[in-house]
Amino acid sequence: MNAAPMFRKVALIGFGLIGGSIARGAKALGLAGEIVTTARSAETRARVRELGIVDGVVESNAEAADGADLVILCIPVGACGDVAQEIAPHLKHGAIVSDVGSVKGAVVKAMAPHLPEDIHFVPAHPVAGTENSGPDSGFAELFINRWCILTPPEGTNAEATEKLAAFWRALGANVEIMTPEHHDLVLAVTSHLPHLIAYTIVSTAEELEGVTQSEVLKFSAGGFRDFTRIAASDPTMWRDVFLTNKDAVLEMLGEFQEDLSKLTRAIRRGDGDALFDHFTRTRAIRRGIVQIGQDEAAPDFGRRHKQLGKAPE
Amino acid sequence: MNAAPMFRKVALIGFGLIGGSIARGAKALGLAGEIVTTARSAETRARVRELGIVDGVVESNAEAADGADLVILCIPVGACGDVAQEIAPHLKHGAIVSDVGSVKGAVVKAMAPHLPEDIHFVPAHPVAGTENSGPDSGFAELFINRWCILTPPEGTNAEATEKLAAFWRALGANVEIMTPEHHDLVLAVTSHLPHLIAYTIVSTAEELEGVTQSEVLKFSAGGFRDFTRIAASDPTMWRDVFLTNKDAVLEMLGEFQEDLSKLTRAIRRGDGDALFDHFTRTRAIRRGIVQIGQDEAAPDFGRRHKQLGKAPE
């Protein structure tokens, strides 16, 4: 616990996987004097009250933002503009306003025009998550050793940016700063394209003639199950990502299609050498990711196995 | 430990992830009176001797198969025909010959013509694995609660099939029987297509202009890292899979391309409802896989997280 909290009042607008994880982490570490939250649905607000993690659950975004030193929008990208407009008149002079959206260019465009000049707007994207969503899905350790990307617009107060960076570092994240445009290109390949491909292949497997759904599920350990995890992510969030990062996603999709054509041609022609070379090169990337601690070194993501000779539970 | 082993002598030809896991499991459970193995390279044979798991490491496939009651080829699909020819003259009357290949039609075609009529040929495919390979990568628990598919040709002795099924069940697997053709279609979607897509996207990310390799690695927790695991699988094994299950893979690829075109069109047109509907449907598949115990119920495959407030290791 810190002697003096980093922020007197933190407002979290939205309490899903990310909002709920920030709340749990900030509470555990004493990063805020007070954490106030709200959520769009009465059901979620009721559940957050039951959970008893935050200091206050209020009915409106305006009420949450009122007097807060740090306001973080933890909501789908498509909703950020409206919420910025709604909270703008209630923001405290000198407050930091941030978000956690997976697309940054569109968020900056939607939010910036509404925010008064006397507040500090520092958009953020913690590159972390699980396939779960909702108020119960968050956990304090979610951001540990993950990257949080900040995309402060030109001219943003450096002290405010550093203060938000310190908050994320305290939650366990590494912080990197880049432009919204570069963020959207990088994330198009490391996150948006993989989700799109996963969503596609899962539906392909769902609608096949000649292979039953039961077979798809039973034999999914051959590789398919890995894709189903990210294809179980929050539909609203991902709809908004693809609507708002359209250009970068379509560009990456074009690259992917070219590469897929090359591999398809090698298969059709029976070009074993080309396939072998390709499959050898991709191994190195995995090693790199494990080496920098961005994934499990244990095989199979460290999935657990039961003991031999015991009946399955 | 069983009082009487299921097989007096088991020969494992090849000692990679699958061969090594069978050896470890069978040894732990006492399923074989004696386990003899061999491997193509002298280096692997030396390592298997060092490991001290099996009862004998011999120099040739013929020597391994000699007098064995069960011979399992644990080698890439493309090598099975030649090895069948090599061991055929040395097989014991009434022996069971099997394999563990990920493609069954091509294996049956390549092996069956070489095998004498007095042996029982029961091809098998344990749908289990990790991204690791080599003699050190196996473990006894690999097959627990996974499926092992047997594809006995018409007219195969039912007792021999059941004996091999019992062996796999003892190792923890569930056994299903189907035709080689149906196996190859089912696995094309649950395993081969996912691997092809993963191999593709990993190379796409490797060769981008405008995004550095370091950025791809750092921000891989956004989804990309999930794909790198299966794209780190054994290149020889996967080359052979795509060469020998070409037709079914190309068919599935065609279906995938159609579905990807649909999603791409929805993105291009900004059709949020189509995206949302699609992303909602795919969630159900994940739930089904978790419900039947084919993947972790824990979020994020149960990947571990460090404790908050401690410096990363």
TrEMBL record, chains A, B:
EC identifiers of the protein: 1.3.1.12
A single MF term (Gene Ontology): prephenate dehydrogenase (NADP+) activity
Chain coiled-coil ranges: none
Source domain of life: Bacteria
Keywords (A to Z) from UniProt: Amino-acid biosynthesis, Aromatic amino acid biosynthesis, NAD, Oxidoreductase, Tyrosine biosynthesis
Name of the protein: prephenate dehydrogenase
Record pathway: Amino-acid biosynthesis; L-tyrosine biosynthesis; (4-hydroxyphenyl)pyruvate from prephenate (NAD(+) route): step 1/1
Residue intervals of the Prephenate/arogenate dehydrogenase domain: 8-297
Protein family membership: Belongs to the prephenate/arogenate dehydrogenase family.
Enzyme class: oxidoreductase
GO BP, sorted A to Z: tyrosine biosynthetic process
PROSITE patterns: PDH_ADH
Reaction(s) catalysed by this chain's protein: prephenate + NAD(+) = 3-(4-hydroxyphenyl)pyruvate + CO2 + NADH
